[in-house]
Structure prediction request, 142 residues.
Amino acid sequence: MKFDHIGITTADLAVGRRLLEGSVYVGSWTQAFEDPVNDVWVQFGQDQSGLCYELVAPLSERSPIRRVLAQKVNTLNHVAYLVDDLAAQAARLVTLGFVEVAEARPAVAYGNRPIQFLVSQSRLLIELIEAPDHRHEFRRNA
Prediction:
């Protein structure tokens, strides 16, 4: 498993960008990705140390992110890892007591490669991404 990003929930990508630019000095952003399969907007930002953040905003009124935002919990939502074999890594986490949040499904931001979320009893939420060689394309803010 290779670290990819920390997921942050936000009501709107622009609001999230302003927050991360001002607080942790995120200065580079990818394009925004509309992901109807997962019912979210996502965008990745990189800070001065190279740490990658993913902003996750609702795409529709039915988006699972709306519930998280309404409850005002899980703003720092998940930690994500790139993996060679999603099924094998998910099975390994299940043996450690993690539970699958949902079936694996394609993600637009990763070229429709499968992603899956698993959660531990202590509420640690991990995203597995079957795209071991993926690299985000960041652009510097003007």
About this structure: Residues 2-140 form a domain with the 2,3-Dihydroxybiphenyl 1,2-Dioxygenase; domain 1 fold (CATH 3.10.180.10). The chain has a mean pLDDT of 91.
